[in-house]
Amino acid sequence: MPGQDPPSEPPTTFTLDDLNAGDLVRVNDRCPHPECHGEIGIIDFMFLARPECGTPAEFVVDIRGFLTPLEREHFDPLPPDDQ
């Protein structure tokens, strides 16, 4: 089917700053949304940075069911033992 990886090849994955969709993160105190500080979320998807436009990379994080766009400095990955 067009647009899908052939069955013989592994699916294409996308990593940004060593993070993938589905990774757990904890929102830190640098987040502009104080109500999210300390919350654990799941990276839903990511946007690449566009330096020519002055736009940093964004991570859309699912925090308690709300999709919240955050920059990398706004959260810390949870260690594998905590996931």
Task: Describe this entry's structure for a reader.
The chain is mainly β and 83 residues long. It contains no helices and five strands. It has strands at residues 24-27, 40-47, 58-63, 66-70, 75-77. A five-stranded antiparallel sheet has the order 4-3-2-1-5, with no helix packed on it. The protein is globular, with a radius of gyration of 15 Å. The model has no long low-confidence stretch (mean pLDDT 86).
- In quaternary terms, these chains amount to single chain
- What would you call the structural class? mainly beta
Count of DSSP E strands? Answer: 5
Could you estimate the helical fraction of the residues in percent?
under 10%
Mean pLDDT: 86
- Total of helices: 0
- Give the low-confidence spans: none
What does the main sheet amount to?
A: 5 strands, antiparallel
Strand order of the largest sheet: 4-3-2-1-5
Strand coverage percent: 25-35%
What is the first-to-last residue Cα distance? 35 Å
Rg over CA atoms: 15 Å
Overall spatial form: globular
H/E order of the elements? EEEEE
